[in-house]
Amino acid sequence: MIAPSILSADFAHLADAADSVSRADWLHVDVMDNHFVPNLTLGLPVVKSLHKATDLPLDCHLMITDPDRWAPGYAEAGAANVTFHVEAAANPIQTARAIRSAGALAGLSLKPGTALDPYFEILKEFDTLLIMSVEPGFGGQAFMPEVLGKVTAARRAVNAGHLRLFIEIDGGIGEDTIVQAAEAGVDVFVAGSAVYAADDPDRAVTRLRELARDGMARCEAEIGRG
Ligand SMILES: O=C(CO)[C@@H](O)[C@H](O)COP(=O)(O)O
């Protein structure tokens, strides 16, 4: 799945930004509070309005402190998937359950320097695992290939039937990097600047999907795709 990140779109025209990627699978919405990350974007009222303005499922990525308090509200606002950071959560299991009870998928995100191993046990409470491939906060940064080990470890756990979730990657994904992410085992690819800096965002989505499929086929041959 390809999830264009509206962080790279024109914030004065978010509904148009959603319309311009009609071939996308999800629309990725970065919520930043200027505390967990040094940037400030949007919150619940904008998510509610976007939900009314587009048929695309909203993939809300909360880069905020105290997600335990705020995350379920994003599910109530219409998000299809609500992802929060393990580094910010006091009670990730309870928060995942509250998101699911409010009708959305629950996602757990890890910053590049955060290890996956300590969280394997709680991942059965989640529907998506978002591996950050840049330091969260800004679009247009360089992809960090060193996070792909976490992707492959999660892929192997999914293949073995130990986990059931979508593996998502976010940061620096474009034509030059999407194949290696797909080969490592990613299911959902977030792309901001690679989509919204393109002359035709929908064409960029299609191109990224083609490249991802090539990489996913190689992943299937080499490590399998459960
Ligand atoms: O969450 C973030 C950044 O913190 C991302 O969703 C960015 O918006 C991705 O932008 P590109 O790296 O694809 O330009």
From TrEMBL:
<dbReference type="InterPro" id="IPR011060">
    <property type="entry name" value="RibuloseP-bd_barrel"/>
</dbReference>
<dbReference type="InterPro" id="IPR013785">
    <property type="entry name" value="Aldolase_TIM"/>
</dbReference>
<dbReference type="GO" id="GO:0004750">
    <property type="term" value="F:D-ribulose-phosphate 3-epimerase activity"/>
</dbReference>
<feature type="active site" description="Proton donor">
    <location>
        <position position="170"/>
    </location>
</feature>
<feature type="binding site">
    <location>
        <position position="30"/>
    </location>
    <ligand>
        <name>a divalent metal cation</name>
    </ligand>
</feature>
<keyword id="KW-0119">Carbohydrate metabolism</keyword>
<feature type="binding site">
    <location>
        <position position="61"/>
    </location>
    <ligand>
        <name>a divalent metal cation</name>
    </ligand>
</feature>
<comment type="function">
    <text>Catalyzes the reversible epimerization of D-ribulose 5-phosphate to D-xylulose 5-phosphate.</text>
</comment>
<feature type="binding site">
    <location>
        <position position="28"/>
    </location>
    <ligand>
        <name>a divalent metal cation</name>
    </ligand>
</feature>
<keyword id="KW-0413">Isomerase</keyword>
<feature type="binding site">
    <location>
        <position position="170"/>
    </location>
    <ligand>
        <name>a divalent metal cation</name>
    </ligand>
</feature>
<dbReference type="InterPro" id="IPR000056">
    <property type="entry name" value="Ribul_P_3_epim-like"/>
</dbReference>
<feature type="binding site">
    <location>
        <begin position="192"/>
        <end position="193"/>
    </location>
    <ligand>
        <name>substrate</name>
    </ligand>
</feature>
<dbReference type="InterPro" id="IPR026019">
    <property type="entry name" value="Ribul_P_3_epim"/>
</dbReference>
<feature type="binding site">
    <location>
        <begin position="170"/>
        <end position="172"/>
    </location>
    <ligand>
        <name>substrate</name>
    </ligand>
</feature>
<feature type="binding site">
    <location>
        <begin position="137"/>
        <end position="140"/>
    </location>
    <ligand>
        <name>substrate</name>
    </ligand>
</feature>
<feature type="binding site">
    <location>
        <position position="61"/>
    </location>
    <ligand>
        <name>substrate</name>
    </ligand>
</feature>
<protein>
    <recommendedName>
        <fullName>Ribulose-phosphate 3-epimerase</fullName>
        <ecNumber>5.1.3.1</ecNumber>
    </recommendedName>
</protein>
<feature type="binding site">
    <location>
        <position position="5"/>
    </location>
    <ligand>
        <name>substrate</name>
    </ligand>
</feature>
<dbReference type="Pfam" id="PF00834">
    <property type="entry name" value="Ribul_P_3_epim"/>
</dbReference>
<keyword id="KW-0479">Metal-binding</keyword>
<comment type="pathway">
    <text>Carbohydrate degradation.</text>
</comment>
<feature type="active site" description="Proton acceptor">
    <location>
        <position position="30"/>
    </location>
</feature>
<comment type="similarity">
    <text>Belongs to the ribulose-phosphate 3-epimerase family.</text>
</comment>
